[in-house]
């Protein structure tokens, strides 16, 4: 922590690239800490820096009028690194970034942030092929959350988590559990309140709840009804609630549209907005050799459980909830995606299902989330192993740790707070 600002894991991936010419683009939801992250990066870079917020209309007008003169002024004032915040607000962002890169290559370094992956992809990245490196910043992951609360415990957690992901990638077996009660207690808090930085830093549960409810209102009012020009905010709010109810389940867009009373076209546009503002993500089926495997229908998962719970207006503690299975499955998905894994699920027309299938360089690995542990493993799990014969499989439990051999597959079960 530096002056009340907490380190982010993604810093370790970005800092080594600071000396390269490419523009570094950081994407992620509002209030996930993009601006703060750029400030942390700036502290580790030598030389004078300029910070420009494109949420401010006068800054947008000034750079659009003459990008070269705008940058020249900053450069002549001694700035060798530019930090541009919310670049998707620039109508011609990609063209401007290209002009600056080509005109000042080797003289300046540009970092840019944005809150809409769709806007950045459409307005920016097409102009910057070979000129930009892109990073996705999510809200605090479980490990970052632990680091805020207990640095000593965080170091132990990092070792455990690394061993699990090494196993996923085909490496050594996961490490045995330790300090389980403390880690599980923090996990139960994390899956209720999530990882938005201001929420994580709040000391009381009531303040955390207030911040999350306000965050939902801000997201709907500013990012959605204003930026995307949606006329009926209540309609979009109902769609968000529908997504929350269907969290971790197969999501039929037509059914959702009918339940809300909107067209499938409008429901699809709402889903695109939710995905491209880093609120939720769709996961698609894995299939290879089975003609009976479902191939199209996606599942939906939220990228921050605190926001998901706030949309449902359900902030009950873990022990009093009836959706703990959904929370656990969503948590595992979020940690897999944030770690850069290509995540799918598997389901047959007969109803056999595997929560997640992850593709790695050494082959696929099935991952099943079972809070009840090994006793809860059903026929679906064994059906997948028999069909695809993976070298290894992972079972994520609430607090169990064990290993077994099923056919040719080495199965490890690990407690959920290892991720």
Task: Give a topology summary.
Layout: H1 11-14, E1 23-27, H2 34-43, E2 48-53, H3 57-65, H4 67-76, E3 79-85, H5 93-104, E4 109-114, H6 117-123, E5 132-136, H7 142-149, H8 151-168, H9 180-193, H10 197-201, H11 205-226, H12 233-245, H13 253-260, H14 264-276, E6 280-283, E7 299-302, H15 305-311, H16 324-338, E8 342-347, E9 353-360, E10 363-369, H17 379-388, E11 392-397, E12 402-406, E13 409-415
Helix pairs in contact: 3-4, 7-8, 9-15, 11-15, 13-14
List keywords for this structure.
six-stranded mixed sheet, Rossmann fold, 419 residues, 44% helix, alpha/beta
Could you explain the architecture of this structure?
The protein is globular, with a radius of gyration of 23 Å. Helix content is 44%, strand content 18%. The strands form three sheets. Strands 8-9-10-11-13-12 form a six-stranded mixed sheet. Strands 2-3-4-1-5 form a five-stranded parallel sheet, with helices on both faces. It has a two-stranded antiparallel ribbon with strand order 6-7. It has 419 residues and is of the alpha/beta class. The protein has 17 helices and 13 strands. It folds into two domains: 11-136, Rossmann fold (3-Layer(aba) Sandwich); 142-418, no CATH class. A hairpin with a 5-residue loop joins strand 8 (342-347) and strand 9 (353-360).
